[in-house]
Specification:
The protein is an alpha/beta fold and about 350 residues long. The chain contains ten helices and 16 strands.
Length: about 350
């Protein structure tokens, strides 16, 4: 009798587990890291009970970024890895945004890798919605960075993902959805394409304007960031072919391998007429492991100080990458418990506390 009850209970348990397994396969899917991703609640547009307390909408006035009162705002902040990557390491949480806020940052740049967005149909609600909420609660702006590296037109590029959709079509799709969702969210800034490369200035300008118009067609009036060519460093084309739209900020990425004598040509001259942000910069110490990333090899004296001094003289804001202990150049080490030399330098220039 007892044996029958045990068998019956075991069968019921086995059946329940089987039903759970079937349900997970029907309604859940796995990330590339192997984590189970359950569906999340979707909303038609972003909302937050305290959205009135979020940082105010920024706009462009001549070559400055200003708040509604006309006060000049210099954006300075950090970039962690893609939220999907953070999630795979159990680091996607509000505490991370609080850490970034504690450094003195007023902006966080969130890289959205197209392959991660492509493979997770709930990405916007799973990751972008909460990170914008957390940043808003902490008084920070969020740059949503569509993290393609290569040509939007041809799809060429060593780091372009192999997807079943062309980068131009996918970029349009992404910005139509994302801009519509965050159209009334004052602390959001859109960066349309991380690093244009293998593309002419004229072709990139045409594509950039197309993406900008898609964002504006969703009634999203926030600042839009447009990067330079040659992996975003070169903005010289803007002199003759600026994007024909209001509230445009131009981005350059400057690393140690980029000759400081050319900084003026790359972005300094443009900053005299239009707002410019350095949305990526950083360095690896010469003694670090940088055999395959020689463009990052540098130090505080030869690169860090000269760059930040140059930016300060021109009131140019910046975002340092990476706020991470894996992706190079890393600001963190010891599993995120302390800073690298580069990390110390960044934190000191943000005015935040040491670890």
């Amino acid at each position: 009798m007892i044996l029958r009850k045990i068998i019956k209970i075991s069968l019921i348990t086995l059946g329940s587990l089987l039903l759970l397994f079937i349900a997970l396969n029907l309604f859940a899917y796995f990330s590339e890291s192997g984590k189970i991703l359950l569906p999340v609640k979707r909303k038609e547009s972003f909302s937050h009970k305290n959205i009135e307390e979020f940082p105010p909408l920024l706009s462009v006035e001549n070559n400055k970024i200003v708040d509604p009162s006309g006060r000049v705002v210099i954006l300075k902040g950090l970039m962690p890895p893609d939220p999907a990557v953070l999630h795979s390491r159990n680091r996607f949480h509000r505490r991370l945004l609080q850490e970034i806020k504690n450094t003195g940052a007023n902006v966080v740049r969130i890289p959205v890798h197209p392959e991660n967005f492509y493979h997770d149909e709930d990405y916007l609600w799973r990751y972008l919605d909460p990170v914008v909420s957390w940043a808003g609660e902490l008084g920070m702006y969020v740059i949503i960075n569509w993290h393609y590296i290569g040509s939007i037109e041809s799809g060429r590029g060593r780091e372009m993902p192999d997807l079943d959709i062309e980068p131009k079509a996918f970029s349009k799709q992404f910005w139509k959805q994302t801009a519509a969702y965050f159209r009334d969210t004052t602390n959001v800034i859109f960066e349309i394409f991380n690093e244009p490369a293998m593309i002419t200035a004229e072709t990139w300008a045409i594509n950039a304007e197309e993406l900008v118009k898609i964002i504006r067609s969703q009634n999203a009036n926030q600042i839009i960031i447009v990067g330079g060519i040659e992996y975003a460093r070169d903005l010289s084309w803007v002199k003759d072919r600026p994007v024909d739209e209001a509230n445009i900020v131009y981005a350059s990425h400057i690393y140690p391998a980029h000759d400081k004598n050319l900084w003026g040509d790359y972005f300094g001259d443009i900053s005299e007429r239009y707002p410019v942000l350095i949305t990526e910069w950083g360095f690896l110490d010469k003694n670090g492991e940088a055999a395959d990333q020689l463009y990052l090899v540098g130090d505080e004296e030869s690169y860090g100080k000269p760059l930040l001094n140059y930016l300060e003289e021109r009131n140019i804001g910046w975002v340092a990458c990476w706020y991470d202990d894996v992706w190079a150049p890393p600001m963190l080490k010891d599993k995120g418990k302390s800073y690298t030399k580069y990390g110390h330098f960044v934190i000191n220039n943000l005015g935040g506390g040491e670890r």
